[in-house]
Amino acid sequence: MKRVKSVENPMFIAIICMMIAGLVLIEGPVPVMAQAQGGNVTLNPGYIAGSISIGDISQNTKTVWRARVNASGKDPTGNDLYAETWIGPELGNYALTVQIPDDVLSAGTSQEYKVSCALFYSSDKKEYLVFKEQTVTVSYNETTSLNFALEPPSYIKGDITVGCNTLSSGWFYAKLNSGGNYSNTQIRISSDGKFRVPIQPNSGIKVYGHVYMSNGWKYDLDEQYIDASAGNETAVNWTLLAEPCGGSSCNASISGDINLSGLGDNILHHHWIQVSGSTFKKLENISSDTYALDNLKGGDHTFYARSYLNSYVRSGRTYYDDHFYHPYGVSGINVNAPCDTATTHDVSTHAAFVNGKIILGPNTVVTLEEDTATDTYVYGYVEPNTRSYNKGLSRDEVDLSTGNYDLILSQREWNVYYTKFHFRNDQSKLCDPENPRYVHAYLNIEDLTRTGDGKISLTAGQTISNHDIRYETGSVTIKFYVNGGGVLKDPYLTGENADRTQARISITAYGKKGETSEGEVTFIAIPGKYIITPKATVGESLVTFGKQEIEVEAGVCRGIDIHGPSLTMESPEAGYYTTDASITLSGKASDDMGIASVVVNGDTIPFTSTDNADDPNEVSFSTSIALTAGATTIQTVVTDTSEKVVSDNRQVYQDGSPPALN
Questions:
Q1: What secondary structure letter does DSSP report for 247?
Q2: What is the DSSP track for 558-577?
Q3: Do the strands 347-360 and 463-464 form a parallel or antiparallel pair, or are they unpaired?
Q4: 217 and 306 in contact (C-beta within 8 Å)?
Q5: Closest Cα to residue 623, out of 610, 611, 612, 608?
Q6: Is the peptide bond before 527 cis (omega within 30 degrees of 0)?
Q7: Across the strands, what pairs with 194?
Q8: Between the CA of residue 469 and those of 31, 276, 500, what are the distances in Å?
Q9: Alpha-carbon torsion angle 406, 412, 415, 419, nearest 10
Q10: Which DSSP symbol is given to 149?
Q11: Where are the alpha helices (DSSP H) in 433-571?
């Protein structure tokens, strides 16, 4: 009889990745009994090089932190291409490596890229000057010249005068008054209200912004339109009458109770409140059940309330096992605070609870206890599609030793549908405890089957128990090489599931940091097809290699070369249980170059054509595998005539009696 096995006997896939011209990357967390895929992609380099300059900077109020040049395009099949490089504050010359797709290379043509350049004035990348985008074509192993220069630039000199209040900070924006290909500038405004920055010369540039006073009151800088000519300085000034002035005022306040009751054994640490709109102000550590926001500017405010519970200390830092963002139906999302009025706004929420367990299996290649980091969470949302924390959110940190979670919710409908896994293990057993792999990957699952009809309706004080969340997992491993040998650095990948009707899944995975001649990244996912974007740094450029579709199967470890042969295993399924002494393995393989060999557990086996009119290169194979008591690992390796490889590792179990599920 066929039974699935628990995660006690992990299996390993020996990923066979032939060295081909190229750089490859795939990343993600690695499960213990699922299927892992791996392989290579080819880097066919082309180059874009030039210089960046912005003229005389001696009188500017902002200094350059770093500059980024990035190129984006699409290959002949519509897949995205991207590359970027950074240079230091001195600007000057840059060199960018880009991918020339195989189809473009074989046709002897050039690849089109749209190239952008941005100067950043701050390390958080929120202050910048963006040049106009330019379009170029790039050929394999050749360099296309492209400069980004303001020679000479135009300058904007700003001055903001405040009446009787004190300016604290703000933001200034300069953009063309039209869509399309334009440059823009965004900078912070300091407390003196003065600034001078370069911009790309043009006419009809819209300038605007907003500022905050020292008491949190907000004022908009009305839009102006200017013509900025090369080499000239354009003045933009705003005068604000910031209340109170001359005895007049428009003070307002919001105060009230804040309460999260019915918590049982949960321990409230503190509340947090913030308002934005007419005033920006927040109270970050409210230990009592009352609050007061005084000296507000009269007008509409957006109101947010949160509670933090069950604190603990790790590495000298305080963390909170539970975060609760009060739903807007309880805390109110918009609160009007008229001038000279004390507005009362109470936040009163009665807790309800959903408890359960996160279960990986029965077929999985990772375990929570061994392979998962502490920032693994279960979330509940009032509105699932946007995952908006403003409208109600609860987050609980999963107990990795047991898989248990206990969400603190409230009286209303909730969607407990979002789970975030962080897999981190430098020596993950995956499918073979004797050959561990490096795993550093994130898997974020929005399970849409748990929304809509699957949402949970709670009354105050209610507890719903045994709300378990179960997923099977698989892994994919890909090796990286640079064409002709060479060094790559910091491989990683991002991706999402192809069919997003039942779930929205995102993955991110990283290889080991540092330079290497052979990189490797492993990602973990639940079964299905995924669109993966591999990335790595070559020279000084971060390069992507186009999107790849890869399928993950639960309970199997599989390795593939990108653009290599396909392999479909027909039997046995991963985790198959039998009392027989042997089992028949069968499958099909295909490749546009033709199949050269099929090897099962080290033995070459025969294959025959399937006579498939739609796929003339498709072959089938079958062989008998002797089983030993317990787990038997079956490795199938298929090689095409160009020496690209796909491999599949799965475990089956021979036992006289069926096992019990853990």
A1: T
A2: EEE-TTS-EEEEEESPTTEE
A3: parallel
A4: no
A5: 608
A6: no
A7: 159
A8: 16, 37, 19
A9: -30
A10: E
A11: none
Q: Is 271 exposed, middle or buried (0-12, 13-18, 19+ CB in 10 A)?
A: buried
Determine whether 484 is exposed, middle or buried from the number of CB atoms within 10 Å of its CB (0-12, 13-18, 19+).
Answer: exposed
**Dihedrals phi, psi of 390, to nearest 5 degrees:** -65, -25
* Burial class of residue 605, CB neighbours in 10 A (0-12, 13-18, 19+): middle
Cis peptide before 362 (omega within 30 of 0): yes
- Write the pLDDT tens digit of every residue in 558-582: 776 666 788 999 999 988 999 999 9
Contact yes or no for 423/442 (Cβ under 8 A): yes
The torsion of the CA quartet 409, 411, 416, 421, rounded to 10 degrees, works out to: -10
Are 376 and 421 in contact by the 8 Å Cβ rule? The answer is yes
Confidence band for 320, pLDDT divided at 50, 70 and 90: very high
Beta bridge partners of 636: 600, 648
Ranges of beta strands (E only) in 246-340 are 251-261, 268-277, 281-286, 290-297, 299-314, 317-325, 334-337
In this prediction, residues 57-77 reach a mean pLDDT of 93
Pairing of strands 218-228, 202-213: antiparallel
**DSSP secondary structure letter of residue 338:** -
Instruction: Name the nearest CA neighbour of 35 among 597, 568, 548.
Output: 568
Helices and strands per DSSP (H, E), number in the chain? 3, 51
Contact criterion met (CB below 8 Å) for 471 and 443: no
Angle of CA points 471, 410, 264, to nearest 5°: 95
Residue type at 370 in one-letter notation: E
Which domains occur in the chain, in start order? Answer: 45-139 (2.60.40), 154-230 (2.60.40), 256-421+447-470 (no CATH), 564-662 (2.60.40.10)
Q: Please indicate, yes or no, whether the overall pTM of this predicted structure exceeds 0.85.
A: no
What is the C-alpha radius of gyration for the chain, rounded to an integer number of angstroms? 30
- Closest by Cα among 562, 516, 640, 647 to 41: 562
Mean pLDDT across 161-182: 80
| Distance linking the first and last C-alpha atoms of the chain | 18
Q: Is a pLDDT exceeding 60 seen at residue 17?
A: no
Sign of CA dihedral 376, 380, 384, 390: negative
Alpha carbon of residue 320 to chain centroid: 23
pLDDT of 375-431, one tens digit each? Answer: 999 999 998 776 666 688 999 999 999 999 999 999 999 999 999 999 999 999 888
- Pull the structure tokens for residue 371: 């392979």
- Which percentage of the chain shows pLDDT scores above 90? 63
Q: Which residues contact 401 (CB under 8 A, 6 or more apart)?
A: 368, 369
pLDDT at position 346 is 93
Helix (H, G, I), strand (E, B) or coil at 422: strand
- Give the tens place of pLDDT for each residue, 229-254: 988 999 999 998 766 555 456 789 99
Three-point CA angle 583, 584, 587, nearest 5°: 140
Distance from C-alpha of 581 to C-alpha of 628, rounded to nearest angstrom: 7
